[in-house]
Structures are given as structure tokens and as C-alpha cells.
């Protein structure tokens, strides 16, 4: 009788051991288990099925196990194992939109957005993605979406990533996981790409590009260099890196901001007299710490005049830049509370005729529980979505200058496109043009207009080492948001190795 009873018990023990060693083997590869990506076929606010393939998901950023001690710290809970030695539990959220052309041959682009921990959803919905929020009065229902005909997914698959940790729907289980900076978040992105590429091997052979705008332009060349070093060291999976592009990019250099003075002077926003005073007495200190009374007075006058315009595009109506922050919006707070719980960062209310009214609507769309379910957002991972975290999470600006990375990558022969909306006063094209010239590469195609439909769409110059600089006529910060058709034409030609 005891023997008969022991057989099922031994079988159960054997099954347990097999499960244990299977889990243990998985532990020795990674310190976390990942959920399968979500294939999104419908999104709230859009009539009908998506006319493109959208995949979303979280990717863990964990270290490899270094010893048996780490592997053996494994507990079973309800038939699953929970890692107790997980370092920080940081996860990056991504949206992968497959090319609407030929996804097996078209390039894959990793896209990073700028700002202080800003969500990449802004780039997807307002810049280069295939969806747009319809700008109409908010009535308490989920904002509507429409298809965007000038999406860059017409010619490439795009991997939009919420980076660094804390941006958008990316999160960390351990609060210390939010303590990152430009260098550490770039290295996390490199880990992300390794894991994502391993799980999507059918895209490995596609040409791969890294792109970003504004502050994201600081990460792009640094990350590109790190990937190129892995390629040279034959680290697998081998990313098929073919170049990078940056729009209205920050560099970390003072030229990014000092160029505002000649730009605003040329645009008739500051006077000859103020311009001359700043040039004579400030010596590049107008944005730092003026050392003379004359410079301090000139800086104050400059700031007052600068505050009169909409900085992302000097021709548009000046509006509050829709982002997280405190305001009195009791109606909006009530609606958001009903839709998605209490928000700590309700968006400032904007007039409908503001260019960035759609950004205001994006809070209601992204924080709706139906949207979160459709995107596959993990329950309890983020209590709210905000466009940007402006200073409420730690972040180190430790890439002091990106110019050396631009030089290194172009000298290696990687094609680079640097472009600027010519009406952006936040990072004016004059400063970008200046540091591009400072690389001292010989010119192979002189400054000229580039055209769309028989009209100039901007101006461009090409240097040796496959470096192209271009302006986008009528573009702001960022250019695709204001001139989507021109920017798609520019991107299509560049990625197809055609002259602008």
C-alpha cells in the first residue's frame, strides 16, 4: 500500500524537480521572465482595425547571473517562480510599427524623443507615426484618432521606445531604477536592442538606423558609437547599423543656446542695439551667469522679448507648452479621475486654437483604461501617463558634448542626416549648422535648395564621410510636427541613399 502511495508522490516530486531545474536554467540566463508582446489590432478612438501592424511590449533591463549563488535564490509561488535577486526591475516600453511598404526589406529605425523624460508617444502621435489625434473640443469621451498619410512608416519599420526609465509607460519596480542619466540610459537602450533583436530575428538582416530629435539628439550619436563598437567586436546579435539621423538636436554645447541671439536678431525679434550689446558685453554668458551689469540688463531684456513668442515655432500663437504640471483644471481633473484614477500631474488646459492642443488631448487618450488595456500596459506599473517628467525624477546630464561622437561615427563611414526646422528658436538651425561646419569636412555638394513638387522645401549641404545637413522650410521644434510632407520626402530620399 505504501509503495502504491509513494509512486504518485515520487512522480510529483520528479515533476517538481524538472520544473525547478527548468526554471533554474532560465534564471541562469536572465533574472526576470518577460510577457509576450501584444499585437494591437484596434485602438480606442480609431474607427475600424488598424491599417498597419502594431506590436507593443515591455523589455526587462536586467543583468546576467554571475554565480550559482544568484541562480539558487529562486522561490516558487503558485506554480511560477519569482526572482528575489532582481537588481532593479527596470522595464522599457516600446511600440513597434511595421513598415507599410515591404517590411522584410525596408529599414528598421529606433526612434527616441527629446525633452525631460518625455514619452515617445508624442513622436508617434504628432511627428512621424501613422496616427494623429483629431483636434476637437474635449467632451468627456476618449479623443478620436485619424490615419496620418505622411508617416515615416511608409518607408520604414519604426521602433518607438519610452526611454529613459520613467518616461511614458516605462517603469522600475525599485525606485532606485529611476536614478539614471544620459550615459546609463543609452547603455540600457543598447541592452534593449540586444534583447529585442534576439526576439525578432527576422529583422536582423534589415538595414538599421537610429533617430531622434531635440534632447534625444544627444543620445543618438553616443548610442550609435556604442553599437558600432559592438559590431567591430563581433558581439551578437550583430545589429546591421547603416547610419543615424537627428532633428533640431541638442549637443550639450553652449552653441545650442547662444545661437538664439543671432537667430532672433535675424528674425526681427530683438533689435540691432540689443544684439550688439549682447555681442559686446556678454561673451556667450547670456544664458549662464552674466558677469557685468550691462550683460545682466541685456539678458533681462532678451528674456522678456523671447517670452513673447512660441519657442517651438516663432510664427505660431504663444501657448502654454502642454506637459505635466500643477494647475487649477478642476473639470479636467474630475474627468481624468473618473477615467483613470487621480492624477498627480493633470495637464494644463489649452485653447483649441493652440498648435499643441492635441498634446492636451493625449492625456485623456493615454490615461483611459481602455487604451491601457489595448496597448497591453501592465497592471500597476504606472499610475498615470504624463507627456514629460519635468524635474520630478532624477536624471544626470552626463554627456557633455556629442560633437566628438558625430565626428567618430562619420569618420567610420556611417551616413548621418542632421536636419533643422528653420523656424525653431529652441535649438536654432544656426547653432546646428555651426557645429556641423566645425567638423571641418570637405564639401561635396554645395549649399542648395532641395525641392518638393517643384518648390523649395528647404536647403541642404553635403560633406565627405556621408554627412548631410538640411533645413526644413517652415519647420519648428520638431520639424515633422509642422511640415510632415516635406519631412517624409526628406527621410525617404535619405534612407534610400538618394540626394535630397
User: What's the overall geometry?
Assistant: globular
Any guess at the CATH architecture of the largest domain? 3-Layer(aba) Sandwich
Task: Report the β-strand fraction as a percent range.
Answer: 15-25%
Mean pLDDT across the residues is: 85
Query: What is the total domain count?
Result: 2
- Give me the count of strands: 18
CATH class of the largest domain: Alpha Beta
What's the assembly state of these chains? single chain
CATH topology of the largest domain: Rossmann fold
Q: Return the structural class.
A: alpha/beta
Q: Which consecutive residue ranges, at least 5 long each, have pLDDT under 50?
A: 1-5, 14-33, 63-86, 323-342
Helix content: 25-40%
Give the CATH superfamily of the largest domain.
Alpha/Beta hydrolase fold, catalytic domain
* End-to-end distance: 85 Å
Supply Rg. Answer: 25 Å
Q: What is the number of helical segments per DSSP (H or I, 4+ residues)?
A: 16
Most strands sheet: 12 strands, mixed
Amino acid at each position: 500500500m505504501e509503495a502504491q502511495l509513494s509512486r504518485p508522490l515520487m512522480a510529483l516530486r520528479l515533476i517538481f524537480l524538472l520544473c525547478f531545474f527548468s526554471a533554474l536554467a532560465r534564471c541562469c540566463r536572465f533574472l526576470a521572465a518577460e510577457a509576450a508582446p501584444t499585437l494591437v489590432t484596434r485602438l480606442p478612438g480609431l474607427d475600424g482595425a488598424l491599417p498597419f501592424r502594431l506590436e507593443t511590449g515591455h523589455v526587462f533591463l536586467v543583468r546576467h547571473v554571475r554565480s550559482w549563488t544568484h541562480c539558487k535564490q529562486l522561490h516558487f509561488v503558485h506554480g511560477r517562480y519569482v526572482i528575489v535577486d532582481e537588481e532593479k526591475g527596470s522595464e522599457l516600453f516600446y511600440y513597434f510599427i511595421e513598415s507599410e511598404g515591404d517590411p522584410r526589406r525596408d529599414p528598421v529605425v529606433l526612434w527616441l524623443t527629446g525633452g525631460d523624460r518625455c514619452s515617445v508617444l508624442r513622436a508617434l502621435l504628432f511627428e512621424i507615426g501613422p496616427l494623429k489625434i483629431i483636434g476637437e473640443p474635449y467632451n468627456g469621451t476618449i479623443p478620436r484618432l485619424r490615419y496620418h498619410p505622411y508617416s515615416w512608416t511608409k518607408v520604414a519599420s519604426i521602433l518607438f521606445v519610452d526611454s529613459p526609465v520613467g518616461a511614458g509607460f516605462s517603469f522600475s519596480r525599485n525606485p532606485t531604477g529611476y536614478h539614471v542619466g544620459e550615459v546609463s540610459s543609452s547603455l540600457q537602450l543598447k541592452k534593449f536592442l540586444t534583447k529585442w533583436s534576439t526576439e525578432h530575428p527576422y529583422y536582423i538582416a534589415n538595414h538599421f538606423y537610429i533617430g531622434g530629435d531635440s534632447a534625444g539628439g544627444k543620445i543618438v550619436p553616443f548610442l550609435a558609437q556604442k553599437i558600432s563598437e559592438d559590431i567591430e567586436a563581433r558581439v551578437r546579435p550583430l545589429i546591421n547599423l547603416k547610419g543615424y539621423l537627428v532633428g533640431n538636436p541638442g549637443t550639450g554645447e553652449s552653441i545650442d543656446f547662444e545661437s538664439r541671439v543671432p537667430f532672433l536678431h535675424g528674425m526681427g525679434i530683438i533689435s540691432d542695439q540689443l544684439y550688439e550689446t549682447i555681442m559686446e558685453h556678454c561673451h556667450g554668458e547670456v544664458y549662464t551667469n552674466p558677469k557685468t551689469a550691462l550683460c545682466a540688463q541685456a539678458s533681462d531684456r532678451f528674456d522678456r522679448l523671447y517670452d513673447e513668442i512660441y519657442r517651438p515655432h516663432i510664427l505660431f500663437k504663444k501657448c502654454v507648452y502642454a506637459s505635466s504640471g500643477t494647475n487649477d483644471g478642476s473639470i479636467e481633473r474630475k474627468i481624468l479621475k473618473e477615467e483613470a484614477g487621480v492624477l498627480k500631474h493633470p495637464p494644463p488646459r489649452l485653447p483649441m486654437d493652440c498648435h499643441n492642443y492635441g498634446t492636451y488631448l493625449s492625456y485623456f487618450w493615454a490615461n483611459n483604461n481602455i487604451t491601457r488595456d489595448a496597448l497591453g500596459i501592465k497592471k500597476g506599473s504606472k499610475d498615470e501617463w504624463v507627456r514629460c517628467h519635468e524635474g520630478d525624477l532624477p536624471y544626470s546630464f552626463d554627456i557633455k558634448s556629442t560633437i566628438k561622437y558625430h565626428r567618430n561615427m562619420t569618420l567610420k563611414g556611417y551616413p548621418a542626416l542632421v536636419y533643422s526646422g528653420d523656424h525653431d528658436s529652441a535649438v536654432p538651425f544656426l547653432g546646428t549648422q555651426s557645429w556641423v561646419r566645425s567638423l571641418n569636412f570637405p564639401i561635396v555638394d554645395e549649399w542648395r535648395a532641395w525641392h518638393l513638387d517643384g518648390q523649395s522645401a528647404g536647403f541642404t549641404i553635403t560633406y565627405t564621410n556621408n554627412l548631410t545637413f538640411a533645413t526644413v522650410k517652415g519647420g519648428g521644434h520638431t520639424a515633422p510636427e509642422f511640415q510632415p510632407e516635406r519631412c517624409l520626402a526628406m527621410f525617404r530620399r535619405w534612407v534610400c541613399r538618394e540626394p535630397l
